[in-house]
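Service request form, structural biology core

Requester: graduate student, group of Dr. S.
Request type: structure prediction, single chain
Budget code: on file
Notes: please return the result as structure tokens.

Sequence provided:
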Amino acid sequence: MVIWLGHMREWTFILAVISILIFGCMAWFGLTLPVAYRMARVLFAGSRRPRLPAWKKRRFA
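Core staff response, request fulfilled:
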């Protein structure tokens, strides 16, 4: 809301309300910002984390 008070336009008000809703939902679920970032990363990238990159794996060993 502080940004909206400095720049009173409709789009900054909508942005402020959306950010308040997002952070309010995160607080409701008990998530911090780093934890929510990790959860979003797992949703987009997947939970599989190979230990070696594909170019370092030996095929016939």
